[in-house]
Amino acid sequence: MALKEHLREARNRLFKAALAVIVGTVAGFFLYDPVLQALGTPIETINAQEGRQAALNFDTAASPFDLLIQISVFLGVLISSPVWLYQLWAFITPGLKVKERRTALAFIAVAVPLFLAGIALAWLILPNAVVVLTGFTPEGFANLINVSVYFAFVLRLMLAFGIAFLLPVFLFGLNLVGLVKGRQILKAWRITVFLVCLFAAMAAPGGDALSMFYLAVPLLLLFFVAIGLCLLNDRRRDRRNAAREAEVEQGADTASRIDGL
Q1: Tens-place pLDDT, residues 213-261
Q2: Does 148 fall in a domain?
Q3: What pLDDT is recorded for position 181?
């Protein structure tokens, strides 16, 4: 395709992706109230079970409308993700070879569920994280939490967990391109465990032990699965290289015999 045709195709696919996001945003507008109620559930738990005063607070007249737009757009991007991911994939695919297409499709098939699993795990530990963090409030004080700041905190928490679940996929990708070998990672398993626990401690809100445990254990399991896949891939690569070397040596022997005749 000529450059002009590439630009035209990019414009069309971008338009379709933007249209899908707009439709998803409209759907997110109707989901705003239940989502906001779900986000406020940990705050209600604090008031009911902890006996402390906590509430989500809108600090300006325009804050409710701003939050409505933010949550609606976020839900729109999430709901429309199959459409814009497909548009991105359809634009990139013609420039890839068959093997590259299969590899990229396999990575997407693994990465998307892992990312969603990380987000789901973050949602599960959100109530505990809020209770732990607000537990540092001195006696006699109340927690009037800015709702926009609270939503940003929830979003960062989910992104941190989602991206953390993608790290083993990234590690396996480095192995596929030959930058890292499985034996090298396995030899440094103590450092790997330390780094995973350190990342979990930094990503877990408030650094509470339970949230760190919820993040560290699945990450360690995923990392060791990735190491196992790296070892299998290294073994397959070694066998393939050995077969190629054997073919080269056999060809050289045959050529030397012909020269001898």
Answers
A1: 777 788 888 888 888 888 888 888 778 777 777 776 666 666 566 655 5
A2: yes
A3: 80
Is it the case that residue 205 has pLDDT exceeding 60?
no
Any idea which residue has 């990380």 for tokens? Answer: 118
Residues 6 or more apart whose CB falls under 8 angstroms from that of 92 comprise: 104
Domain with 187, as residue range(s), is 166-250
Residue with token string 């979003």: 155
Q: Assign 3-class secondary structure to the chain.
A: CCHHHHHHHHHHHHHHHHHHHHHHHHHHHHCHHHHHHHHHHHHHHHHHHHCCCEEEECCCCCHHHHHHHHHHHHHHHHHCHHHHHHHHHHHHHHHCCHHHHHHHHHHHHHHHHHHHHHHHHHHHHHHHHHHHHHCCCCCCCCEEEEHHHHHHHHHHHHHHHHHHCCHHHHHHHHHHCCCCCHHHHHHCHHHHHHHHHHHHHHHCHHHCHHHHHHHHHHHHHHHHHHHHHHHHHHHHHHHHHHHHHHHHHHHHHHHHHHHHC
- Single out the residue in 157, 185, 219 at which a domain terminates: 157
Q: Are residues 110 and 172 in the same domain?
A: no
- Model confidence at 144, in pLDDT bands (50, 70, 90)? confident
Q: What is the mean pLDDT of the chain?
A: 79
CB 213 within 8 A of CB 255: no
What is the chain's Cα-based Rg? 26
pTM for this one? Answer: 0.73
